[in-house]
Amino acid sequence: MTLQQVQDIIQEGAPGPYYAEAYRGMEGYYLPRLCAEIEPLSPGRSMEIGPGWGTMMLWMAERGWATEVCDLLPLGHWITEALLSRARAVFHYHDIFMGPVGYGCYDLVLMTQVLPHLKFRPDAVVQSCAEMLTPDGVLVTSAINAETGHVYSTYGTNWRAVPQWGTAPAGLDMITMMFTPGSLRELLEEQFATVEITQPQGLASMVARCSGKVVRP
After folding, report:
1. Edge-to-edge, what's the strand order for the sheet holding 205-213?
2. Cα–Cα distance between 154 and 20 in angstroms, integer?
């Protein structure tokens, strides 16, 4: 099943018109690159943080992945029971800032355009992602490059300036922080020995593939 066919299914069952009116178009901009990153991987057990409407959840399930998703919003807000059942997926209603869903369970953790929207310092979330991976597991994540896609953010590209979880109220702006290739690498290398960041020509979105968890004393 192609990504477009999956999006047709998502659109047909979406609980509101926003997917068809706006969200699908945004997905079409960055999801093909993420699919290309995941396609060569051998299917295993995956966890997606912030799955949105469930597009990648279903796309991966159709390719043999045992898919699980974690969201701060309850089931039914975007992902429906029917879609979850179709993907044979597991839904975790959980705030990732409170820690991992499971330790060492997943071959792949996916975070699609989540990092800029996090309301608190993102290194805590990256640490949770690393802790959820098997020793050979991979984190795949994406974020718009502030150098090519100029979007207002509360803290600019300084993710270290964002308050840590539990120290301040959550911000109200849609975009908390942006990233450059350098700042994204700095964030991810806190937890991973190998970080590969690519940005296809003509796109503002970077894709990072991370492996080799850093073991700290």
Report:
1. 90-93, 66-71, 45-49, 106-111, 133-144, 205-213, 192-198
2. 28
Which CATH number belongs to the domain containing residue 87 in this structure? 3.40.50.150
- Low-confidence stretches of the chain (pLDDT < 50) are none
Domain carrying residue 95 = 3-213
Supply the pTM of this predicted model.
0.95
Closest by CA position to 143, among listed 101, 187, 78: 187
Q: Which two tokens stand for residue 81?
A: 């029971």
Task: Name, in order, each residue with C-beta under 8 angstroms of 15's C-beta and a sequence gap of 6 or more.
Answer: 76, 77, 78, 80
Give the whole-angstrom CA distance, residue 30 versus residue 190. 25
One-letter amino acid at 21 equals E
Which pLDDT score is estimated for 216? 67
Instruction: Domain count for the chain, please give it.
Output: 1
How far is Cα 147 from Cα 203, in angstroms, rounded to an integer?
A: 11
